[in-house]
Design brief:
alpha/beta; Aspartate Aminotransferase, domain 1; Aspartate Aminotransferase, domain 2; seven-stranded mixed β-sheet; three-stranded mixed β-sheet; about 45% helix; globular; binds pyridoxal-5'-phosphate
Length: about 375
Amino acid sequence: MADFSDLSSALSERKANHLYRQRRELATAQGATVVVEGKTYINFCSNDYLGLANHPDVLDAFQQAASEFGVGSGSSHLVCGHSSLHHQLEQRLAAFLGRDRALLFSTGYMANLGVINALLGKNDFIFQDKLNHASLLDAGLLSGARFQRFLHNDIASLETRLQKADAGRKLIAVDAVFSMDGDLAPLQALSQLAEQYDACLMADDAHGVGVLGQRGAGCAEFFNLDQQQLPIVMGTLGKSFGSFGAFVAGSEDLIETLIQFSRSYIYTTALPPAVAAASLASLKIIQSDAARRQHLQALIGLFKAQAQALGLPLMPSDTAIQPLLIGSSEQALVISDALAAKGFLISAIRPPTVPANSARLRITLTAAHTVQQLEELLSALAEVAW
Ligand SMILES: *Cc1c(COP(=O)(O)O)cnc(C)c1O
């Protein structure tokens, strides 16, 4: 490209369409309340679903590991960056999910890129739900595999596409919990379809692990799918774990294949070991403190019932992601600003993150919220102009 003079016109256009993104500068740790530009807000847009990002045990583990292991991991996992803390976290995650093995990646985005590109090439097929996370979509494009997007949570739409796929590997990849909608993929039906058409099923459990299931082991536990029925689970550590990083869990052969062929695993620096230690501490809390999940569930039930009574535009979600559908990006921004003026942080999620004309307020509930904070939110929502 010889000419970048159109950058500013593209930026102006984005502004004119109410799609411009701006960052907020937080002066505090993640939590139910945060400070932005000197003002305290109740935070309803974080993915720190269990309130672990600033938990004292997680902080302690992080600090102690930093004293012992330093900050940087020094290199990629395959060179000399794979510490005993990384290894232990992989083993505990695999046991937690009931899988042979797990492999750490530096981010969920990279995990999705790494899995799909290690497994698929141009003679293969990738089937993805239309509402999948951008990292899955990007991974599919990069792989060069024949890309089939099916209608959201529509088994028949997927089956039509599977019937037409002739040779090559077939991978079905979905968000287990859709990140901007909060609804669940029908993983049991998808698993049966995968078996019927000799395809492999992959679930991106970024918003499920830690939260879904009695033990918090995520979508595999919630839908009771073993490794054969759900061979690839990707989970992130930056959301309910309150830490950073991601993992893929599955069979011995899957994990060895990723170690050998996954470029976003091989060609990047390993996570800081202290971050792995923090995730280990989070995992311990997830396994021992079911009360956090129970409190979160209670808040979700309360929010849904009261929002419904207020006539708010709820979406069909039973998870901690409770979006309110607005439609117009401009209106979503107006409402988000009005709520900010009342002391609530809630993001206006707009295209291209969501389909055209489906801008929404993405409210996320966490175990760190009190019932009173939730009630304050509901009062504020009742007062703003829809
Ligand atoms: C957040 C998210 C990712 C990316 O994970 P990071 O660790 O933040 O890179 C992938 N998939 C889904 C569904 C997500 O919500």
